[in-house]
Amino acid sequence: MPDKHVNWFALEKACAKDGCPVCTIVRERSARYIDNMLFEHVSDRGFRERYRNSLGFCAAHARSLESYRDGLAVAILGEDILSHVLPDLKKGRPTKVRGKCPACEETERVEREFLGFLAESADGDLRDFFCASEGLCVPHYRQLTAQNRRTPSWLKEFHEKKFTLLLARTRAFIECSAWGRQDDFAALSPEDKVVWKEIARTLRGEAD
Ligand SMILES: [Zn+2]
Ligand SMILES: [Zn+2]
C-alpha cells in the first residue's frame, strides 16, 4: 500500500481528537473533497456527469455547500441540476436518479480504506494511540467487522469493553433518573450525567 504512512499519520492525528477517529477523518476528507470539486473540478466532465446522475449531493453533503465562499461554483452546479429536472417537474414526472451522491461515494471509499488499514495494522504505536482514543462509533465498528474477514483481537476486546461500559453507564443513568433518586443522580460524574449524549453519538457516528 503506497500511502500507508499517510494513513498512519492521519489516524494518529484523528485519535488525538474527541470522537470516533474514522468519523473525524471522513468529515475532514469529505470537506476537502467537496472543496476540491468546487474549486478544481467544477468543469470536469466526469464529475459533472456523476453529479447530474445523482441529481447533486445528498441532503447532508448539499447542506455544506452553503458554507463555501465560492458562490459561482455552487451556482454552476445548481443551474445544471435545475435545468435537468425542471422539464420533468413541468411534466409531473420524477427525474430518474442514476447514481449515488459523489461525496457519499468518496466517504465510503475513505471508510473502507481506513477500516482496512486499521484491521491489518500490526504496528504497536498505532495500537497504543488508537486505544487511548474514544475508539470507533458503532456504525464504523460494525462496518469494520463486516468488511474484514477477521477482526484483530485487540480491536475486538477494546470495542466490546467500551460498548459494555457505555451500556452499564446508560443503565445507571436511567435508574438514577427515576423519581426519588435525585441524590443518586447528583452523585453521578459530570460525564455520566450526560451519557445520553455519548450513547446517541456512539450509535450514529459523526461522519457528516
Ligand atoms: Zn465513526
Ligand atoms: Zn452524500
Characterise the protein shown here.
It is a single chain. This protein has 208 residues and is mostly helical. The chain has one domain (4-153). 70% of the residues lie in helices and 0% in strands. It is built from twelve helices and no strands. The chain has helices spanning 4-15, 21-39, 45-53, 59-63, 71-91, 102-120, 124-131, 138-147, 153-176, 182-186, 190-193, 195-204. α1 (4-15) packs across α2. The two termini are 27 Å apart. Residues 20, 22-23, 136-137, 140, 205, 207 line the site of one zinc ion.
Number of domains in the coordinates? 1
Rg over alpha carbons? 21 Å
β-strand percent reads under 5%
- The total beta strand count reads 0
Which descriptor suits the 3D outline?
globular
- Biggest β-sheet strands, sense, barrel: none
Bound molecules: zinc ion
Average predicted confidence as pLDDT:
92
From the structure above, extract its key features:
single chain; 208 residues; mainly alpha; binds zinc ion
Give a nutshell description of this structure.
With 208 residues, this protein is an all-alpha fold. It has one domain (4-153). Helix content is 70%, strand content 0%.
Topology (elements, then pairings):
Elements: H1 4-15, H2 21-39, H3 45-53, H4 59-63, H5 71-91, H6 102-120, H7 124-131, H8 138-147, H9 153-176, H10 182-186, H11 190-193, H12 195-204
Helix pairs in contact: 1-2, 2-6, 6-8, 9-12
The structure holds zinc ion (ZN) (2 copies).
